[in-house]
Amino acid sequence: MTSILIRYFAAAAQAAGTEEEQWPTVATLAELRAGLQEKYGQEMAKVLSAGSFLVNGTVRRDTGALRAAEDATGTKPLTVDVLPPFAGG
User: Fold this and answer.
1) What DSSP string describes 9-73?
2) How confident is the model at residue 3, as a pLDDT?
3) Quick one: which H or E segment has residue 7?
4) Is 75 exposed, middle or buried (0-12, 13-18, 19+ CB in 10 A)?
5) Which of 2, 38, 71, 82 is the 20 to 30 A CA-CA neighbour of 23?
6) How many whole angstroms separate alpha carbon 55 and alpha carbon 68?
């Protein structure tokens, strides 16, 4: 795995100034969070403090390992969605 596809939604997209980008591979969500905060600053830090990640379709709020999902052909590319907190309703 050489990179991660990061997709940003709503306030996360606004903080990043883009809706998606390729990101260098990192071992954990903690590393990804730190990298995003370093690159995009306080606005992204606010989104990440209350938001969540969707890693290949699974909601993650922990800081653990990032691994590509297995599929019939070997390994699917890793996709991480950065989701801001959503209002109820």
Assistant:
1) -THHHHHHTSSEEEEE--SBHHHHHHHHHHHHHHHHHHHHHH-EEEETTEEE-S--B--PPEETT
2) 86
3) strand 3-8
4) exposed
5) 71
6) 9
φ, ψ of residue 25 to 5 degrees: the values are -60, 135
Q: Scan for tokens 């940003």, then name that residue.
A: 8
Residue 89: the pLDDT is: 45
Q: What distance in Å separates the CA atoms of residue 17 and residue 35, rounded to the nearest whole number?
A: 15
Rounded Cα gap, residues 85 and 18, in angstroms: 18
First-to-last alpha carbon distance for the chain, in angstroms, is: 39
Tens digits of residue pLDDT in 17-72: 999 999 998 999 999 999 999 999 999 999 999 999 999 999 998 899 987 655 55
